[in-house]
Amino acid sequence: MRKIDSFILELIYLAVGSAALGTVLAFIVVFACQHFGIDIYSNLWILLIPVTLAILLNICFIELYRKYKKK
């Protein structure tokens, strides 16, 4: 069995961090919908906001990591 490359391990850490941040954002959106009285079942598109933010943040973190890791 081959040892996992450190670069891949760091990318996994970035992905897990982005997923955790996406989970926190999802809870914030659900609590905000509850606070403002928005029916989340009729507006399921609202749950796409934390998912897209988590994906975009993951891509940004990876690109920033590649940019500053080479220096």
Task: Describe this structure in a few short sentences.
The chain has 71 residues and is an all-alpha fold. Helices cover 75% and strands 0% of the residues.
Provide tags for this entry.
71 residues, mainly alpha, elongated
Total count of helical runs of at least 4 residues: 2
Average pLDDT figure: 87
* Helix content class: over 70%
Helix and strand string, N-terminal first?
A: HH
Largest sheet: none
Quote the beta fraction: under 5%
Shape: elongated
Radius of gyration: 16 Å
Number of strands: 0
Low-confidence stretches: none
Task: Describe the structure in your own words.
The chain is mainly α. Helix content is 75%, strand content 0%. Helix 1 packs antiparallel against helix 2. The longest helix is centred in the N-terminal third of the chain and has 31 residues. The mean pLDDT is 87.
List the helices and strands and how they pair.
Blueprint: H1 6-36, H2 48-69
